[in-house]
## 1
Amino acid sequence: MQTLGEQGVLVEATVLVSQDKKNVIRVLHVDDDPSLQDITKLMLLDLDSSFEIDSACCVYDAFKKLSTEHYDVVVSDYEMPQKDGLQFLIELRKQNNRIPFILFTGKGREELAIKALNLGADGYHNKQGSPETVYGELAHAIVQLVNQNRLKTELANGEVRFKQFFSNLPNAVAVYEAISNGEDFVFKDFNAAAEKIEKTSKADIIGKRVTEAFPGAKDFGILEIFKRVWKTGQYEYFSTALYQDKRDTGSWRENWIFKLPNGNVVAIYNDVTERVKTDLELKRTNEVLERVGEGIDAGLAVIGKDYRVVWANKRLMALGVAPNKKCHQTFNNSETICPDCGVKKIFEQNSALDVHEFKTLDSKGETIWIELRVTPFKDKNENVTAALELAIPITERKKAEQKIEQEAILRNTLLDNLPCTALILEKKTRKIVASNKIAQENGAFTGGICYETCAKRTGPCTFCLAPKLWATNETQSLEVEYEGKFYRGIWVPYNEDLYVHYIFDITEYKKNKAALLLSEEKFRKTLKKF
């Protein structure tokens, strides 16, 4: 079954049931084994955080909890003291309690499963097997049964809810009953909005054939749609069309037709005459837009308030944007309004400008990037009648940004794998632009000053060769002893504004070298004695 949603678009009736995945599902787990209760609770909560698990150790305890608490589903063991799972199920159903019931047992006999299902169990699951499979299937069954049960509950109240919906809907709604095996239809109900559009009263309509009350219905084409929907049960959208008869000299209608569970056909419709007039007014501006659109190196389109493309220049037409199709169908190949839609912000939030980037495929199937700039299109009374969308190609810019990003990742990867402190610095200021992990471990982060972070000084190091590099643009290096340690410093040009500074701690190398020299000297002296 389908009904009318936001923007007058038909959606499935299951939206009447909350589909928020965060909705709590309350599970009563009945089992005489406390350890299995704990394991089941941990496994189910790990699989789905929307579960809320309560436990009972026997059938008596379970009935006691059911009498005071609300649960969405019962998961019960078979073998338990006093009463088993099937006896529990029988008593539940005798009390006309239709809560979803799953028998969860280690007894894998086929006859037990058949018996449970015949007694009214909604599912049977064996505890034997890998925990991931067993509890994964159990969690899936719980969610599925609870959702089905909630839907049944909503549908049971559907008639009342439909009446409320019917009465308060601002759209015109007419309910029809099929006669002559679906060859004709009579009016069963007619809401206030329909009375206003048709300028007639419900009392004058109810019980009449469609063709009697509205002689132009057959030529209008809607009667054939009624027949198809009644036969197939599939809803249809009857796009904007002109209705005329002796009473109505001409008005534009838009219809959504679907079938109710009781077999009646419902038409929800709007008089869109004013919208059509507005579209015609917009189309008169096309000549001006054509001239403007051809003079810019970007796409340009006018989007109507029904999200249909009223006009598009050749640049956008080459990308597959077609007039009279909805913008989200052409830009994003979607039947629903795009996420973060700029046109929607113009129409619904009265935004003066919306700018966002958009990725799509061109007519050759190649990925392209577009910057969309959307502004309101107003009439002489300052009323927003459409949205003007400017599509600026930014593919080359995005490629350049991606290249820079990849180079940065590569540069940082190389820096992080060096066995030394490595810094990329601004010339003159010695400000850190990038640093590797070793440098960061010593406090040298982006934005800091080289000598303040690495040497813990208030001014440049006296031995620093950076100024010489700035002057010559040539690599510089030296070894220096600083605060009891030995270092090798290397300064390398990077580009016009930056240079790289490598700092190697060579203290151990120096010690080893000194020890080696001392050893060699002792060896020479020993040889000399001989």
## 2
Amino acid sequence: MYEDGTNVQAGAKFLLETRVISDLYVPADSKAPADWEERWARLRARFEKLSDECRPLECVLVQIHAPEYARDSIDPQAVIRCFEGEPKRLSGLSREQSFLLSPEGEYLAGEFAIRDASGVPMCDRVGHPYAYHLGLRRDFYLYPAPMNVGESRVLPGPQLMDCVHDATGLLVQLPATAAVSLWRNWQSGFSLGLLSHENLWFDAIFELAWQRHFGHPLHADRYSLGGASIKLTGDGLFPRLPGGIPFPGLESVPAQGGFPMAYYSKLTDVVRASVAAIDEILERGRSNVNNSQRRFSVALSFPGERRGFVEQVASVLANHFGRERVLYDKYHEAEFAQPNLDTHLQHLYHDESDLIVVFLCAEYNEKEWCGLEWRAIRDLIKKRQSSRIMLLRFDNAEVPGLFSTDGYAPIGQRSPQEIVELIQKRVQLPVSDLGVPRDSESSQSGADLEQFEAQWRQAVARFDEINPLKAKGYTGYRESAFFPTHFQADRFSLEQLRTAAERASVNFTGWPFLVNAPQLPGTTYAIEDGLETLIEHHVNDERLDFWQFRQSGFFCQRVLMWEEFHQRQKNARLAMHIDSLARYAAHAIDCLTRLYDHLLSDVDEVEFRLRVLGAENRQLETFDSRDLWGPYVCKIPQVTFRRVMPLSEWKRGLVDHASNATQEIFHRFNWRQPGNFRKTIEAALKRQF
């Protein structure tokens, strides 16, 4: 592994051979005025107004690395889908290429040779590669997103660039911790004098989008440019080609040491992304205000076998809080090189840490140092200071002193970035919401999840048993399930379920997502531990609605795709209507928020899953004049979207969450850039019968 953008091993000490930079902006030195939040809030309202009144603009970032030895093979137009006029090109941040020097000022040797602009390897007289740091320059391309049928809004004009210019002015007046978090790849700073002042906002949006996980309202991936388009890995300025996987066309990508010589990234609605970016900036700025008298914001307790994962968590936390505020051994090596380290560490964990994050696993029990830290943690539990402890699990190994009632978050398939987001949310919770975990507040355990999934399997088996259309062999269903993260079999009474179902039965389309019709006696009936509905209805086609709502809070709904009957009548191939999927996602999440509105508190976490069944060989269709530039066909039997978040988050970001679910489902149909379905979703939630 190499240091980001270099040909030297990760961890190597070096200096950059660069000239003095004028007008240098260093994130750690940033200072904010007293009313910084109000200024951003006013700007957010302006972007929001533009989003409502104007058509979306797509934005593509192209980053080209220096030396540009393969410049002729890199054509930004290959990834720009502009069908109206010419894309607007703007310049972004840049960084000079540089030789690397040792701390004594001598030229370092590299692990491999970097090619110069002519393609010649840069080596000394005896053929040793020079250590080198790649440079970069960025361009942004703005152009109208493809127009939806019936679109009548105008394109954003000068108002957008006015907002962008004002955002750039506010960017250099952020609280230092928020600035460090945003510009984590530019910690040494950048020149404000070398770029067009109004364009820094575009750099900031993409920097934030690369830090967010898939499914977040602000997210973008990076792909190689030149040769094949391959998704890149890594969090730095210079992401890498994936290793160990023989992607088709990989050999055609111009690259050095795994770093492609150019890459691109895309936002399908730069105005909407600006709104999400401002929300992110405000959240980071507020959460970084440190009122604690303790030395560390977060302390990490883990066994050495898990260092690879934990180190990535620590790195992101350090960008957020600063290294000095994160208790991670490698950040304090000089301090830890002392006798009596055992008692010193126990003091730091017990007395000097706001939140202790414990990475539990089988190895944790076996390590002497973990045992010392665990003694300090157990004493905090004894003293009723459990609000300062967050438990994470790699596995279900027993840990002395923990009981089944102690809440934890499973790491499972979560990425380090997702774990950081959980930690950040925990840091932001007021102490009154923590303390000794209550049932409704505890994180989901593996046992809880298994109980809910067992109820889901029972619901599916029940549907198969009573399905009146089973003999017809329909395979295409849209299905959703949601449930709280803590399982209690008799959590709600039947009367509470009936009241909640009535509240959640909203008729957006002429037929509610959750059918609970008093005019159809007997359609909703009690089962052993909840309510159930099955309705077969015929208008111009065959439809089937089924749902179950259990006293545990588990809800499952399944509907036969109307496309099944439609395509069978025409003897056509399996298909799924893109707008119907977007509307289904919107109505499902709307149902979730209404169903649990008076059953759960806003801080309770709710898991949501959306499935497309019978997806294999099914093709996406518009069933109108729109061209998808496909075909987009699924190659797996079913597609699933899954998210867990507090009920308040589901309510606050309903449209964004439905849009993310729709896009993720479409990605499994091999539609890599499905665009933005916000308008379809917003329209689906406005009309009510």
## 3
Amino acid sequence: MPPFRSFAVLLALSCFPALSQNRVLNAVFIPSPIPVDGQPEAAWNRAPRSEIAVCMNPARTAQIRDCKVSAAVQALWNGPLLYLLFTVSDPHVDTASPTDTKRSGVQVFVDQYDDKFPKFEEDDGYVIVSAAGQQSGNRTNANLAYYPAVWTTHLQSYAAALRHDSAGGAIGYTVEIAWSIGDLPLQNGTKIGMEFAINAFPATGAEAYQLYWSSGNNKGINDNTMWGDVVLSGYDGKSPLPLNTFLLRQNIRQATPAQSSADGLVRGIWTDESSVDRALEAANAALKTAATQSAIDAANRALDTALRQLRRSGKYPDPFDLPVVKNLPDPFTFLDGRKVRSSADWEKRRAEIKDLAQYYEFGYLPPPPKSLTAAATSSGNSRSIAVTVEDAGRTASFAPVLLLPPNGAAPYPVIVEEAFRASATPNPSDRAFLDAGYAVLSIPTTDNPRFGSPGVASDDGNHTGAFYTLYPYKLDREGNDRGVLLAWAWGASRGVDALAYLAAHDPAYANLLDLRKLVVTGFSRWGKGRPACRLPRRSLPGHRSRRIRQRRRRALSLRFVRQSPLPRRAVRQSLSLGPVHRGRNLRRSRPPPDPQLQ
């Protein structure tokens, strides 16, 4: 090969991250469990070592050729436990940082069911164990407490210990982990998707860099396609295995009575709970007394079946009892199969559709609140509006922002925009509306302290924010399990009420806005929340918005398209409803069945 070509190849190898390797590590079967204490047992001599040697710079854009740290991983398994041992040689161990990824340590990425899917799923996660034994991991899925992070259910034990040379000097550390594989087939050939990373530092205060086992292109838990596999091996098919109670314990947790579905099974909302009660009693007994795996499996199957057979009580069938519809449903057929024959029938069918949407998807709008007040603070062309709502002895607030167009004359038509957070700085779509002569009312939907202002409802299923302060979320027969899409629609309605309040109580707003020309819009998840704004609207008595309710409900969107100076296609796209997304509503009806039940 010519010298210049050799140089080009070496330059490319040094400048670009390593390609995906999808490596394989064989986990060797051992007949007895081992202690997890950071001190390697003799059993580890049976496990092959696999080097963790893809050393990447802090930005993970190029490999480091003079890496001062080296590491290897080994794997053993015994029944429902997988053991991992990391041996790290590191001349500079630093565990003082409060940030877990900035401490010397091991990070284990797990794709429990090894589906190699380029998007986060609930079986994906990571656990970090520092050289000093500090442990952390990824957060729950979308901060939903009832979808626990995989490490919180599968990490059984861990330990770390420093390594020293003969003179007593620190030369590195070991990390030992026991991970549950009780939800997988306990047989040779079973794969667990994994990637291993070592966090290291060249000197005190320097930026951390990483060594990877399978690929330097690691994208974390958002893409596991380049991770490797740990493969179970060495089982003779005869040696007795420890009892595997993992799935039984998970189902017992799901069936145990609790106030929240994050902690167990909410009671009092099912047509019949007696079968679950009987199966739960038998499962707890099996956990204490069963001597065989078949007894454990039988108790688990019975409890899992009882959970799957639960049906929500209510005026409509449980979703699991609804017929399968493979095409778009006929809007002119009632739920009971009757056909719409007249305009009077259609009005009834419209009402049924709205009721079905609230029952199954959104939750029911609460009655109008007892009172609402608003106060505005001006800054240039923006107005921050403090909205305070009182109802049922509770008070809550949120702060939408009103943006006024730079040109044109009042009264301005209004676009109510569901947004992540309200800001006095217009985003690109706001500028298009403002330049066209529309005022924009931005409703802050997300309730998160790091944004510095309260929102309408948290976008994480934890049911915080102004709406849930007034109407606490609860799984019950009364319909208090209202979803976030409905809460956001409620926030838009209260925002309009606030504009009407200001028009009636503040002379500066008396003729500022034309509330007869108003539309609610939103992008992505907020577009999915917009259909809830079309449900029966419940405004405060006496507000001007109430007088325009019927007209807006029937014709406003079409009128907005006709009157808008923007291109029709752009306006229609901004008004697109999109499909209703159940994942954003989070009206939970039952704990998810375990897909890995054998």
## 4
Amino acid sequence: MEAIREGEIQVLIVGRYDRFSRIQMQQAIAIYQIEELYGGRVESADQNEQFGKSSTGALLRSINAWRAERELELIRERTQGARRARAQSGKIVPAAVPLYGYVWADSHEKRGKSRYLVDPETAPIIARIFREAVAGVSLRRIAGDLTSDGIPTPSQALTVRGLVAPGRFKNIVEGRWVRQVVMRILKNSAYCGEYVAYRYQVTRETDHERRHIKMRPEGDRARVVLPPEICPAIISKELFQAAQEQLERNKAESIHNNKAPYLTLLRGGFAVCGYCGSTMIARRSTQSYVCCRPGNSGVYNLCPGGHFAIHAPTLDDTLWTMVRVLFRHPERMRAILEAQQAYQDQVHVTEKAGYLAVEGHLAQLKGYLQNATKAVLNAQDDFTRAHWEHEIEGLLVQRAEAREQLQRLEELRQGREGALLYMRSIEEWSRTLEPASAEATYEEKRFLLRGLGLKVTCFRKIHDPRYHVDWNLAGLDEKLRSLLPSLTSQEVASVVRQEAAGEDEAAKTEAFPLRTGGYLPPLVKHTTNY
């Protein structure tokens, strides 16, 4: 088009008009610009498409363009229909290369590439990425460490195996991991055994033809979830979920839009609005926390509580003083440790019996499979062979379910043990390091608040109470959670005043409205154990 407008080309010859464009409106506009505005011509090399320059020829060319666009629509419908039918039949949607971390199980077969096998070379890299993400390592740091360790990137792995041409990825820096690749890996549920076809929806803007890609919600009927044996899990579902929670936490606590993040302790999700549940954002100009949904350019109010703020330095200092009071005496920790240990011992006895029962069932299934295999080998006719092959398929399904049940029992046990170990470490911390807590750094304070699962729900000044404090205790028995109070602003202020006045421990303890029995402080790290 540019060359024709500049006069460098007078005639544009195309093999067929549908090779020029299959969209009739686009084709008509382009031909009009070339012939009427730029003084050029568009000619088809096909003898059946010599329509001439009359109004009848223009009509015939328009009909021909409509036919080409309709053919394009039918091609898309047939292609997408076949792809969706393949996915609904339990097969992976065809792709040129396998997903990173896997290899094709049947690429050599006719109509193959229907399922994956775990790649022993790249699967450990996937597990490493998820473990580091859950540990709180940033995506840039993960990518940088992979590059420093000389780990081949997904494009390098494909090139080395001859699955793609060496010059295929021209815009990718050789051997360099980037955060976008790490993010795609962490967001893909296929790595925990949940392969979803049609996870993403692609839309286009009619004006600029720009593509928008967004993930479909779980309830979308267009999504097709494939059986777990099609894409074996590399990591556990608990680890995948923990990674998603960490990504959301990283997003909430990101400081790239906050020029002075260290001035506010409860930013990034610790303080929430009591009216709409949104995260309170830190406003540096007024040193306050405000609801992030007060309105949209002043047009209308999204939060039923309206615009309100709470003084950040006062709230931060009050909450941190209260947390220090909770850790002041190690004997507070001992009560919850003893209760949790008793609960864990009781559950261990029950689960041990279930564990042994599942192991016995697995041993029984092993014998059944051996007998069924012998029956298949000794079958005298096709009917008998087909019968025993069907029996083997059912036994394999039962064996997979039993193994998954054993894995769940083991993960639950590890989760309880991890919570108990963390509580013991906190008890040791309160015994030895508490005197230095007054000098804790900003990051150390936030790490402890995150471990406690602290959430401060804030309200307007006229509300009573002005805020209340809750704790999210992952890993504890629900009965133990119910012993812990939800502290209001008056109760927190009372504890802080008594702490400042140096009153005795008995008076401080009475400030906490316990629901049942003795005092149990909330001291469990809020992470998912795996």
